[in-house]
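This protein record is not my work; I was only asked to verify it. Take the sequence as given and treat only the tokens as open to question. I have pasted the whole thing underneath without changing anything:
***
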Amino acid sequence: TTTTDRPISVHSLVFRSLKRTHDLFLANQNTPVAPDETADAITRKIKAKDQYGTVLTLPKGMKPHVKSTTETTETSGEATND
């Protein structure tokens, strides 16, 4: 873009590109991004499968293998009464 045959430095080109990008998005800087309902639904499904996957896939009528705290205290109390 210069009239001379001198090469333009990379720093100068990057700065110009950055300035153009800044000018392009300056008008809508404070505009919030519209929520993407599809992406939110996918995120919830992935999180549910990751954190609750083993519980979500239990067959009907099957109890989980982890005992609750009340069951463990009852069984320990019975064991000491022998």
Summary: The chain has three helices and no strands. The chain has a mean pLDDT of 78. Residues 35-59 form one domain. The radius of gyration is 31 Å.
